[in-house]
C-alpha cells in the first residue's frame, strides 16, 4: 500500500448498516470489523481530507473488534470520545489517552457499544515541519513505537474541541484547517508521556490470542473446542481464559462464537448464490435453528435477511 495523494479540503458524511461496509468507508485504510455485541449495527463516519492529513469522527452502535492499517509514511492518533474503555493491541487505554500507531503497521482495537472516536492521520514530514515551526521537540523514535500517549487533559479537551469544530465546518472558512488541526495535535505529543512499554506477559498473551484466531479461521469449517485450542497452543484452559479476557475482554467461547457468526455474515454477503444452510455449515454451525437464533441476537436480523441489510 503506497502513501496516497490527499485532496484539498473535502468533508463527507456517510452512514452504514453493516460493520464491514462501515470499515471500508474510511479512506485509504485497510480494515476488518467483527461485531461483538448484539443488535442492529449503525455506523457514522464524518471525514475531512486535507493536503497532508485526514481528520475523522467515527461512531459505532455495537461493540467491535477491529483490525486496522493506515497508509505508509504517516502516523495515526486516536482520541476516544466515549467514557468506556478502549483496548489497543490488548492494552486498556485510560480516558485521557491518545492512541498512536504508525502507518503500514496492522493493529487491533476492541471497542464497546455506543462508541465514538476522533482520528487524525498525518504525514510524518508534515508533522515534522509543524513541530519545527511551533517549537515542539518530539521523540520520534519513541513516538513511532508507542501505542498510548498519556496527554494533558486540558490539551486533549482543546484538541477534541478543535476537531469537532473542523468537522462541523465552524472553523474552515476563516483559518487554514490543516494548521488548525496540527496546532491542536502537537501539544498532546509535547506534554504527554509516551508509554511504549508492553509487558512481557501481555506480549505473550497477545501472541496466544493471535495464534488462536489464525487457527480458528484456517479451520472454520471444523468444530473447534476450547480443549482443542489448548492442545494446539500448548497452554492450559486457565491460561487461555486469562489471555482472551486480558487481550479482548471476553472468554474463548464467546470469541469463537462471535468469530464464526461474523464470518458467516461476510459469506452471506459475498456469496449471494450460496444457500444459507451451506454458509452456516461452512462455519461449523450444524444446528441451523440455533445458528439462526444466535445470528439474529447478534446482528438484529435473520440470516435470510442479511443480504437485504448488507452493502448495496
UniProtKB/TrEMBL annotation:
Keyword Coiled coil: no
Pfam family, one: HTH_18
Top-level taxon in the UniProt lineage: Bacteria
UniProtKB keywords: DNA-binding, Transcription, Transcription regulation
Name of this chain's protein: Helix-turn-helix domain-containing protein
Domain HTH araC/xylS-type: 210-309
InterPro entries with a match to the protein in the record: AraC_XylS_family_regulators, Homeodomain-like_sf, HTH_AraC
UniProt key word Chaperone: no
Amino acid at each position: 500500500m503506497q502513501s496516497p495523494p490527499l485532496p484539498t479540503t473535502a468533508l463527507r458524511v456517510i452512514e452504514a448498516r453493516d460493520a464491514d461496509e462501515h470499515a471500508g468507508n474510511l479512506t485509504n485504510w485497510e480494515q476488518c470489523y467483527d461485531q461483538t455485541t448484539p443488535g442492529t449495527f449503525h455506523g457514522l463516519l464524518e471525514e475531512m481530507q486535507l493536503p497532508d492529513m485526514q481528520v475523522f469522527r467515527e461512531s459505532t452502535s455495537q461493540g467491535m473488534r477491529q483490525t486496522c492499517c493506515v497508509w505508509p509514511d504517516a502516523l495515526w492518533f486516536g482520541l476516544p470520545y466515549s467514557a468506556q474503555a478502549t483496548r489497543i493491541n490488548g492494552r486498556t487505554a485510560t480516558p485521557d489517552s491518545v492512541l498512536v500507531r504508525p502507518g503500514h503497521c496492522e493493529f487491533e482495537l476492541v471497542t464497546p457499544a455506543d462508541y465514538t472516536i476522533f482520528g487524525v492521520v498525518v504525514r510524518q514530514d508534515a508533522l515534522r515541519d509543524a513541530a519545527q515551526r511551533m517549537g515542539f521537540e518530539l521523540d520520534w523514535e519513541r513516538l513511532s513505537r508507542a501505542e498510548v500517549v498519556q496527554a494533558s487533559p486540558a490539551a486533549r479537551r482543546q484538541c477534541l474541541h478543535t476537531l469537532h469544530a473542523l468537522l462541523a465546518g465552524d472553523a474552515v472558512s476563516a483559518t487554514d484547517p490543516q494548521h488548525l488541526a496540527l496546532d491542536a495535535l502537537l501539544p498532546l505529543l509535547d506534554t504527554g508521556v509516551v508509554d511504549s512499554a508492553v509487558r512481557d506477559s501481555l506480549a505473550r498473551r497477545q501472541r496466544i490470542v493471535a495464534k488462536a484466531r489464525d487457527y480458528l479461521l484456517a479451520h472454520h469449517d471444523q468444530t473447534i473446542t476450547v480443549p482443542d485450542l489448548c492442545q494446539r497452543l500448548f497452554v492450559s484452559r486457565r491460561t487461555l481464559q486469562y489471555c482472551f479476557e486480558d487481550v479482548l475482554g471476553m472468554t474463548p467461547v464467546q470469541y469463537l462464537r462471535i468469530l464464526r457468526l461474523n464470518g458467516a455474515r461476510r459469506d452471506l454477503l459475498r456469496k449471494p448464490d450460496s444457500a444459507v444452510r451451506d454458509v452456516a455449515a461452512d462455519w461449523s454451525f450444524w444446528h441451523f435453528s440455533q445458528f439462526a437464533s444466535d445470528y439474529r441476537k447478534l446482528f438484529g436480523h435473520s440470516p435470510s435477511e442479511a443480504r437485504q441489510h448488507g452493502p448495496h
